[in-house]
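Task: fold both queries, return tokens.
Query 1:
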Amino acid sequence: MAVRIEKLVTAHKQLVRDVSHELRSPLARLNVALGIARKQSSPSAEPALDRIELEGERLNLLIGELLTLSQLEGGAAGERTGVDLSGLAEEVARDADFEACASNRHVQYLASPALVLQGIVRCCAVPWRT
């Protein structure tokens, strides 16, 4: 039974690695299509295209984090660093405001004292916010 569980865990880790790598190709094609759309669209479409680009970048970061998780589970070490939770909360509020604008509503972030959490740097070392 222990051998079977070990095989399942190994298969799960391999699946996460494989899926992460396979998601990179459609994401790259999405970025190419976005570039074409930017050339062919009117200026009024820029906010929506900017949002598509932002979400594509986030998907890319999530894929990178999945790959990092696989590496960490495999024993690769990472560097500890601080994560600004106040900045993250501000980013979430900004995203919520973007979504709320469609319903004529707004979300406002009221600044809070700096709150930093210590964590492991992703191997790709790309910040969440661009």
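Query 1 returned. Query 2:
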Amino acid sequence: MVKAARLHDHDRPLVVEDVHLPTPGSGEVRVDLAFGGVNPVDSYVARGRVAADGPMPRILGGEASGHLNGRPVLVTGAGLGSTRDGVWAGAANVPEAAVVPLPDGAGLREAAAMGVAGLTAWQTLQLADVQAMDRVLVLGASGGVGLTTVSLAAAMGATVWGQTGSPGKAEAIRRQGADQVVVTDAAGLADAVVALSPTVVIDGLGAGFTSAALSALEPHGRLVLFGTSAGSTSTVELQPLYRKALRVLGYGGLILSDAERLAGLREALTALAEGRMRIPIDRTIPLQRVNDAFRLLTDRAVSGNIVLDLH
């Protein structure tokens, strides 16, 4: 028996209860879990906006860290928490393909957020082909992905500015290595970043932020869109796109192949172990308070990542 956070009905609080863990099936291994990453997509699953036809009841959680035969590992992907039981539990039977060994120097707490925040930061900067001479603007820089992206872009040698709508979160962005922080909404963004003249924008906000960022980009600039937390609709002036030879690139983490995900995770975990990427953990919450984690995400009350203590 293990303690696990289970979804019984959409739009209802998760229930932390004892669950019988059967013998691992073919192609599965049992992992003793330590910390579980909490991401917006988990709340979408709980509300039925993602994987609404998944089995019920089921354990939620798409990523966690722990030990397999005494070795530290990350567990992520393979439909965990959506099409099958997830990993917000004391232990879990997971597909072997979902297990990624941790390199020396990668801590369990930070690794628990690597399957989403760490991988997204790594992949978006690779997609934008960020180089040391680039000037990178990170939108929504106070979030889990944003803060991680700031740290990695700074380690690459780029000039990095971070945007936030909250003055109280500016210092967290600076601590991750941002050269400057702009506190602005979408309407003021273009004017706020004139001095930067960005060559790359990493955009997890969408809505008016995307159109404003495109207007601010330098010729031959690149914008990578990975989320739309501010809104999924934007009105874009088309002439600047071709007159400035801009590139708009979409990053879809949910459709990565197993091989793409594994390759990206290995590289991102190496960056974490070497200190080139920093995963900021805002707070660690006991599994019993998993529903508090959802409320914190909804209220945007954190700077960085939330992890669950699964011990």
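Both queries returned. Flag for query 2: The longest helix spans residues 258-273.
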